Amino acid sequence: GRISEEKGLLHLVRCFPKVLEQVPGARLRIGGVAFTARGEAYLKLVEGEITALGLTGNLEFVGEVTDARTFLEEADVVALPSEKEGLGQVMLEAMAMGKALASFASGGPTEVISDQENGLIVPVGDTAGLAAAIARLLKDPLLAKRLGLAARRTVVDSYSSEKLTPQLADIYSDICPRSGLE
After folding, report:
1. How many CA atoms lie within 13 A of 48 on its CB side?
2. Which has the closest alpha carbon to 149: 99, 115, 108, 113?
3. Which of 22, 45, 58, 91 has the greatest count of CB atoms below 10 A from its CB?
4. pTM for this structure?
5. Is the distance from CB of 101 to CB of 108 less than 8 angstroms?
6. What does the alpha-carbon distance between residue 173 and residue 130 come to, in Å, rounded to a whole number?
7. Separation CA 150–CA 64 (nearest Å)
8. Do the Cβ atoms of 99 and 119 come closer than 8 Å?
């Protein structure tokens, strides 16, 4: 993952005290690396906020995640606090693994996640709403399981290689029609 301002980590950190009010003992694990000077400055801002909010005991930065499967297996809920997001790989990987998602309504997530059907969506910047969504999923494992299974079905039905490969082949055929040479 990439740590940058548009990924919204500051929103996630700021909502976490409200999660802890409802789910004492909850832990937040953040994976990713700041690849630019701007990203490094943003990471320092996030780390300062973690300290100011007294979250150091409930939060862990794991840095670069080379094995997304292992990282995501340990999660009960996956939060997507991005202010701007395309069709995010982390989102699809989490959904493929049947993880419950709480996400801001930013770009790609709104195209893939249907609120209350295969995840929970809140308006971008609504940290109270994000906290409530995360806490709701943590407190209601049956809801988290139902949404996670629906998320997995979404990926299998619409984003699996079996589904996308023929579509991609059609696109290439349209762009580069065969010249008749075999």
Report:
1. 6
2. 99
3. 91
4. 0.89
5. no
6. 43
7. 28
8. no
Q: How far apart are CA 108 and CA 120, in angstroms?
A: 14
Residue entry with tokens 């494992």: 141
Per-residue pLDDT of 9-55, as tens digits, reads 999 999 999 999 999 999 999 999 999 999 999 999 999 999 999 99
| Amino acid in position 173 | S
Rounded CA-CA distance 109/16 in Å is 21
Q: pLDDT by residue (tens digit) across 82-112?
A: 999 888 889 999 999 999 999 999 999 999 9
Tell me which residue of 112, 97, 110 sits closest to 145, measured CA to CA. 97
What are the b/e assignments for 136-156, b being 16+ CB within 10 Å? bbbeeeeebeebbebbbebbe
Confidence of residue 163 (pLDDT cuts 50, 70, 90): confident
Strand, coil or helix: what is 99?
Answer: coil
Nearest to 65 by CA among 30, 13, 40, 91: 30
d(CA 17, CA 24): 9
